[in-house]
Fold this protein.
Amino acid sequence: MKASNMLFLPKNVSQCNDSDFVKNYLIKPFEKGQVTFTPLGSRMVKNVTRIFEDLADAYELQRVGFPLIRPISQWKESGRYSEYQNGVFKLDDQYILAATDEEFLIDMMRNRGNLPYNKDTLVYDIGHRFRDGSVRQPYLVKAFIGMPIYTLNSSKNQDFVIENITNLYHNFFNKLGFGELYEPKIDKPYYVDFIYPFDRGPDKGTYCDPCSKYLWYFMKECECGNKNLKPVRGLSLGVISDKSDILKAMKINYSEDMKFNSCGLGLNRILYASIDNCLKNGQLNESLAPFKNVIVCDKEGHEDALDYYNKNRLDTLLDDRKISSADKVELWKFMGTPNIIEYVSGNKPQ
């Protein structure tokens, strides 16, 4: 890819300060509570999901894929439709856009798969969810990317399973460059609430009291219209909670010995926590780097750089913009780029 063709690309490190970097170059907010990823942000999202998938394989989790449209009948069977019916997008009162996965997963395992009762089953998915974050905000549907893990296991293995998933998440956070998470002791339905602590000022996150919701730090107003947002010192990245009541409601050969856990992470928040932590260190972690290889050139070295680029395009950016080569090198070092190759004034590449 050529930098001259990329959208929303900073010209130098000075444009990558704490607030502008995320808002201007990675995630573009639109409407209330809605965001879209820029090309640079999308490449970072791909890196985050790849790390998560590799760890999931190592922990023997199975990936599943869910459809975007689900039958309302599943939600009615689980008993959750009456609680959330005003916060989902409905089609002909028969279907909804994907809001939660528990019902569909249980139905899939109940009707179209062999359910291994004698061993623990762990599955995960990465995909969009469409629902209101609070039942107090009717008719406002929000889209986000979830990275949930679901476990079906015996009660005697519950502590082991929770510890195993917690270790997976900690390894995931460490590979992204931050490990200073703490786990507050809270009551059910949560076993663990993963909190990313902010330590560079009180205004790094906001919270809406009426909706009991954490918001992006640059949001000035909640979806419910509340502008009186509280600054917070931490951001909840996800929780591990017990959803065994859904097993019982959907009659999946339920026994008191079975446990069903939902372990959810929000990808947007994971990305923000990763970037926030990296900015404290002055550059991004290599695991987030948008490109593994960046070719930097000036006018004199452009022809040689272009020739090298045409032979090595995989995960490579050619920064052919008409700006200072020194600024380019400094910028891509900040981005955590593992390999920066310079073609400057006819010199041999460095």
Remarks:
- Residues 3-10+291-343 form one domain.
- The chain has two domains: 3-10+291-343, 31-280.
- Residues 134-140 have pLDDT under 50 and may be disordered.
- Residues 39-58 form the longest helix (20 residues).
